[in-house]
Design goal:
Layout lengths: L2 E3 L24 H10 L4 E2 L10 E3 L6 H8 L6 H5 L3 H5 L9 E7 L2 E6 L14 E3 L17 H6 L1 E3 L1 H6 L2 E5 L5 E2 L4 E5 L7 E12 L6 E16 L2 E5 L2 E5 L1 E8 L3 E2 L3 E4 L18 E7 L5 E2 L4 E4 L12 E6 L3 E3 L8 E3 L3 E11 L4 E8 L3 E2 L3 E3 L3
Antiparallel strand pairs: 1-6, 2-5, 3-4, 4-5, 7-12, 8-10, 9-16, 10-15, 11-12, 11-17, 12-15, 13-14, 18-20, 18-27, 19-26, 20-25, 21-24, 21-27, 22-23, 24-25
Keywords: Signal
Protein name: LysM peptidoglycan-binding domain-containing protein
InterPro entries: Bact_Kbp, LysM, LysM_dom_sf
Length: 380
C-alpha cells in the first residue's frame, strides 16, 4: 500500500483521513475560500454553533457529513467552517470513518472541531498525516444519504427533442414477440458508442418551466438495461447491401421493452462524494414536478427544478425552499385591507444531478409538503 505526504491545515484535526484520486473536483467559490481562510486558524464563532451542539460525537455507520454538520452548526452547508479547511482542502474534502470521536473545543469565543486525542495547533504548526490514495472506501461516510439517490442516478434521463430523436432505438424484437422481457433479444439501430451496456428509456413527460411554459426537456421513463451481444454490420441480400442492426440482450427491466424505445450508455458508477456548498451566484427558480407519481413531496423525496448547468447550478448546491406568504385581511382597521404576508423559508434542497436546463434535488428537510410551482433560492 502506497502513502503520500500532504500538508493539511492543523485546525481541521480530523486525524488520518482518506482522500480519493478518483473524486471529482468540486466548485470552490470565492465566498467559501474567504470563509475557510478566516476560520482555518480561529475556528467558528460560538454564535454559529447549533443551540444544542454536543461536546463530542462518535461517528457511526449511517452518519453523513450533512448530519454531522447539522449537529454542530446552524447551517449544515457551511461545512468548510465546521472542518476549518483551507481552500486547497475544500476542493477534495476528507472522508470520515465510523469509530472516530469528534470533540468540540471552545476557547476565546471561538470553537474548533477536533478528533479525540489530537493536540491543539500552536503558531504556524501544521500536521502532515499519512493519506492513502485509493478508491472510495466502503466504510467512509457520505455527504448525504447515498442510498436515496444512487438508484436515481442510473435512471434519470432528460433529453431535448433533438437528442431524443437522435438516440439509438429498438427497431425489432425477437420473432413472435411484440414486447420483450429479461433475458430476451431485441435489435437496435444507431449505436455509435462502444459501450457494452445501455439504459433503455421511453419518451416521457415534458418538463415545463412554471413561469414561461417553455419545455425545458423531456423526462424519459426508465425501462431497463441491456447488453450488446452483437455489433451492427452489413449483409448482402439479393444483390443489395442491407444494414444489420446491433443485437442486445435485456439484462434488467422496470417494464417490458418494445419497438421505439431509446438507448443511452449506462453511466459509470458515481464514486464521488457529494459535498454541500453554497452556489457561487444568486439563484432563484421554481420546482417543475415531483419525481414519480406523487403530487407533493416530503423529506427524502426528489423534485425537478427549472434551472440547470446552463444557469450555474451544479451537484452539491444547497438551496432554500420557500412557502408563499398568505393573503390576509387587516381586521384592526375599518378598511379591512388585504395584505400579503412575506414568503418564509421552510425547507432545504440538495442538488445531486444536473442537466443543461433542468436539475434534480433531494428534499433534505421541509416543514410542509412541496408542490410544483414552489419557489427555491440560494440559501440565506
Amino acid at each position: 500500500m502506497k502513502y503520500r505526504q500532504k500538508t493539511w491545515i492543523a485546525s481541521a484535526l480530523l486525524g488520518t483521513l482518506a482522500q480519493t484520486a478518483l473524486a471529482a473536483s468540486y466548485p470552490v467559490t470565492t465566498e467559501q475560500q474567504s470563509r475557510a481562510e478566516q476560520v482555518a486558524q480561529k475556528g467558528v464563532a460560538l454564535a454559529d454553533l447549533a443551540p444544542n451542539a454536543p461536546e463530542r460525537h462518535v461517528v457511526k455507520a449511517g452518519d453523513t457529513l450533512w448530519g454531522i454538520s447539522s449537529l454542530f452548526l446552524t447551517s449544515p452547508w457551511r461545512w468548510p467552517e465546521l472542518w476549518g479547511m483551507n481552500k486547497t482542502q475544500i476542493a477534495n474534502p476528507h472522508l470520515i470513518y465510523p469509530g472516530q470521536t469528534l470533540v468540540l473545543v471552545r476557547q476565546d469565543g471561538r470553537a474548533l472541531l477536533q478528533v479525540d486525542g489530537a493536540a491543539a495547533p500552536s503558531g504556524d504548526e501544521r500536521l502532515a498525516p499519512r493519506v492513502r490514495i485509493a478508491d472510495l472506501p466502503d466504510n467512509a461516510i457520505a455527504a448525504i444519504p447515498q442510498h436515496l439517490i444512487e438508484p436515481f442516478l442510473n435512471e434519470a434521463v432528460v433529453l431535448d427533442g433533438d437528442e431524443f430523436a437522435a438516440a439509438p432505438r429498438v427497431v425489432a424484437t425477437q420473432e413472435g414477440r411484440v414486447m420483450v422481457s429479461q433475458g430476451e433479444t431485441a435489435y437496435v439501430r444507431g449505436l455509435q458508442s462502444k459501450a457494452d451496456t445501455y439504459r433503455l428509456f421511453r419518451s416521457g413527460k415534458p418538463l415545463r418551466d412554471p413561469d414561461t411554459g417553455t419545455v425545458l426537456g423531456y423526462e424519459s421513463a426508465f425501462v431497463g438495461t441491456a447488453d450488446v451481444t452483437r455489433p451492427a454490420g452489413q449483409a448482402q441480400v439479393d444483390g443489395s447491401t442491407l444494414e444489420v442492426p446491433a443485437t442486445i440482450r435485456i439484462r434488467h427491466i422496470r417494464q417490458e421493452v418494445g419497438v421505439g424505445d431509446r438507448l443511452a450508455p449506462l453511466p459509470a458508477r458515481q464514486y464521488s462524494r457529494y459535498v454541500p456548498h453554497h452556489p457561487d451566484k444568486r439563484l432563484d427558480g421554481r420546482i417543475i414536478s415531483v419525481y414519480g407519481d406523487a403530487i407533493t413531496a416530503g423529506q427524502n423525496q426528489i423534485v425537478a427544478l427549472n434551472r440547470g448547468s446552463a444557469d450555474g447550478l451544479s451537484r452539491g448546491h444547497v438551496l432554500s425552499l420557500w412557502r408563499a406568504g398568505r393573503v390576509v385581511k387587516d381586521r384592526t382597521d375599518e378598511r379591512n385591507d388585504n395584505l400579503r404576508l412575506p414568503d418564509e423559508a421552510h425547507g432545504t434542497l440538495f442538488v445531486f444531478q444536473t442537466f443543461k436546463r433542468v436539475a434534480y434535488a433531494l428534499v433534505i428537510s421541509v416543514q410542509e409538503p412541496v408542490s410544483a410551482g414552489d419557489r427555491f433560492s440560494s440559501p440565506q
